[in-house]
Write a structure and sequence with these properties.
By secondary structure, the chain is mainly α. The chain has one domain: Helix Hairpins (Orthogonal Bundle). 68% of the residues lie in helices and 0% in strands. The chain has four helices and no strands. The chain has helices at 2-20, 25-46, 70-101, 106-110. Helix 1 packs antiparallel against helix 2. The longest helix has 32 residues, at 70-101. The protein is elongated, with a radius of gyration of 20 Å. 3% of the residues are buried.
Length: 115
């Protein structure tokens, strides 16, 4: 299972890097969001993947069997909420940039000459 997750993390991060290197503002925004999802998936994998393992202990403190680490799950939940806010902010900034400059090409926004 960890191998499948590692391959998925590689595909998501690779896709996000590809999108970050393009010249359109919307693709850069989507690439940054995908990079956040790849990092979240890597953090989830670091907590261990076990089937039917709850992230809780019994009332007396004993273990009911294999237990998942709840810290990565809590961090991922927080990162998803923050990532949604950042995505909304980046979309608003991208829309405002398009309104001001009438283009979404990153090279023309920075003033770099291109062929």
């Amino acid at each position: 299972m960890e191998l499948l997750l590692a391959i998925t993390i590689g595909v998501v991060v690779g896709s996000s890097v590809y999108l970050l290197l393009t010249r359109e503002v919307l693709r850069v925004i989507v690439g940054s969001v995908l990079l956040g999802y790849g990092i979240n998936l890597a953090l989830f994998t670091s907590g261990g993947v076990k089937t039917a393992a709850p992230p809780i202990l019994l009332a007396d403190g004993s273990l009911p069997g294999p237990v998942m680490d709840p810290i990565p799950q809590a961090l991922i939940l927080t990162a998803i909420v923050i990532g949604l806010g950042v995505f909304a902010l980046l979309l608003a900034l991208g829309y405002r940039t398009f309104e001001e400059h009438s283009t979404t090409d990153v090279a023309s926004l920075t003033g770099v000459e291109h062929e």
